[in-house]
Amino acid sequence: MTFSQFSVPREDRYFGDYQAGLSYDLGSVTVSEADILEFARRFDPQDMHVDPEKAAAGRFKGLIASGWHSCSLAMRLFVDGYLSAPASLSSPGIDEIRWPNPLRPGDTLHLRATTLECIPSRNKSDRGVVRTRLEAFNQHGQPLLSLIANSIIGGRKQQPPDAA
Predict the structure, then answer these.
(1) Which residue from 15, 49, 64, 152 puts its CA 20 to 30 A from 140's CA?
(2) What ranges do the domains of the chain cover?
(3) What does each C-alpha distance from 120 to 47, 49, 72 come to in angstroms?
(4) CA–CA distance, 46 with 62 (Å, rounded to integer)
(5) Which helix (H) or strand (E) holds 7?
């Protein structure tokens, strides 16, 4: 797979800077057992996420991160590397979220973003929806997460013509 680079930094990125069909490497983050336990104790206190002994005897044969933890890690990389700083307006939602394999202590989550569509708004000419497939993999290339993010991104403001 060939990865692209944006022609402008995220601090100057607008709707017109996204192009369907391009993929981006958004970086990686390594997760520790302490990270998994801390997140799960606060937000998803199931035994497979918070109790190493019960997790070892369970279906996954060890502690695993909550899928929502994987989403949170991916979201940070998505914001830092892909979304526009000045023009990311909101999101109407996420589609097709999947966790095909668990994220485990010591794993490094790598995130890839592929722009699927750039849809200009029919009602508001100053923005559009960018649909992006996010795919996370561990250090062995096993898929950990996939989803489609829908982001409302503003367009560049038109400069008024100079009055001469």
Answers:
(1) 49
(2) 10-31+65-154
(3) 45, 41, 28
(4) 13
(5) none
User: Is 70 exceeded by the pLDDT of residue 158?
Assistant: no
Task: Sort strands 23-30 and 108-120 into parallel, antiparallel or unpaired.
Answer: antiparallel
Alpha-carbon span 143 to 98, nearest angstrom: 10
CA distance to 6, 45, 49, 71, 107, per residue, from 63 (Å) = 37, 12, 6, 17, 12
pLDDT at 159: 58
CA distance 134 to 26: 10
Q: Is the backbone of residue 60 left (phi > 0), alpha (psi -120 to 50) or beta?
A: alpha
pLDDT of residue 161: 57
How is residue 13 annotated by DSSP? Answer: -
Full-model pTM = 0.93
Question: What is the pLDDT at residue 157?
Answer: 80
Q: Does domain 10-31+65-154 have CATH number 3.10.129.10?
A: yes
